[in-house]
Structures are given as structure tokens and as C-alpha cells.
Amino acid sequence: MPRILIVEDEGAIADTLIYALQAEGFTTHWLALAGEALALLKSESFDLVILDVGLPDISGFEACKQLRRFSEVPVIFLTARNGEIDRVVGLEIGADDYVVKPFSPREVAARVKAILKRVAPRSKRVELSEAKGPFRIDSVSYQILFHEQLLPLTRHEYRLLETLLAQPGRVFSRAQLLDALGVALEVGYERNVDSHIKGLRAKIREIAPDSKPIQTHRGLGYSCCPEQ
User: Which of 83, 111, 191, 198 is the most buried (most CB within 10 A)?
Assistant: First the structure.
């Protein structure tokens, strides 16, 4: 039964989330402070975190930055701010979704289910790893090696590189790569694919400075040629 950590300082909001999530079969744990949540997440395993942005000790944005230093657990932000820049910043620092208050608890529960379905281990995989030129994809541990060295990828970077390597030479649009990340187009995140690609290239160059496997196709998107 998936465990959901709710970090929300308003008791009434937390209660509606707990009710909606438990009605869908989830186990919930509620905390009101980000600091307490970060400490708990270091010692216990959760399947997803619902994180309020406006917390009394530290902001949800800062809490997510700290969380990403030691965990890739999926995060949904809750916030009263609905500006596009806030949504983009939230997703850029590592969140998986962004819900603006007031919201429907049933919609949040549906978003939780959708995210958990996307990140669930793919049990039908027969091979633990697959070679793509100098890359080796471990689809069980969600790791990619380059020249037998582990690339320290975020979850979004892993999904992007896995998608590009799955069909070498194919040009993927930003919208198609967003779909691979499970991010909806309407959140205003499309241009941030470029930031993730930049991060991927930097990590690849740390291992092989002259290697340029990810190609840019202006006005179209990106492709990957593993041997380059």
C-alpha cells in the first residue's frame, strides 16, 4: 500500500487530503513543518510527498532542493500562487506536479495515482541492463553508465536520456520529451527541457570531454547518437 507524506501547516487542508487519499487506499502521514519532514524522509521510505510551498519554517521550494540532495521520491507542490514562473521554478527544482489552492482533493488523489503509475518499477523487463554503444541502461535500478562509469542523473535526466537512447537517431520534440517525463504541456515547462539536456551533456563530458552523443535540431528538438 503506497505511503504518502503530507507536509501542510493548515489542518483543514491536510484533513481533506488525508480523507481523499485514504479513500483511494493510500496510507498517509501528516507533518506541519518542512524540517520535520526532511528528517523523517532520511529515515523512512515514502512513495510520494505532497509538499506545501508556504510552510512556517522553510519554504517548500527550499525543502525540495534539500530533499533532492538525498532522495528522488516524487513530489507534488501545493501552493496559493498560480503564476507561471512559480510553476516552472517548482518543476525545475525537482517536483513532479504543481497544484494550486483551492483544489479538488479528488483531483490531487488522481494526480498521485498517475505519478505513482509512471514511476512504478517496470516488472516486465527481462534484461537488467541494455547496451547502447558506450551507454548501459540498468532499467531495474534506474541507472545509466557511460563507458562503465555511473552517470549521477536526476530522475528527469534519467528519463530523458533513456527516451533518447531507446531510439537512436530519432528526433524527439520538446513536447515528446515532456511526455516522457510525465509533465503536462500546460504547466509552462517546455523550455526547461533545454536545461535538463544541458545538465546531461555536462555530466557526459565529465567522463568523455570530446563525446557529443546528444544532438540539437533547431526548431525540432533533440536526438541521440550513442557512438558520437
Answer: 111
Question: Are the beta carbons of 144 and 154 closer than 8 angstroms?
Answer: no
Domains of the chain in sequence order: 3-119 (3.40.50.2300), 129-224 (1.10.10.10)
Inter-residue contact 34 to 61 (CB < 8 Å): no
Element (H, E) at 168: none
> Model pTM?
0.63
> Which residue type sits at 9?
D
Residues 144-169: tens digit of each pLDDT: 999 889 888 887 888 889 999 988 88
Cα separation, 135 vs 209, in Å, equals 15
114 phi-psi bin (left φ>0, alpha ψ -120 to 50, beta other)? alpha
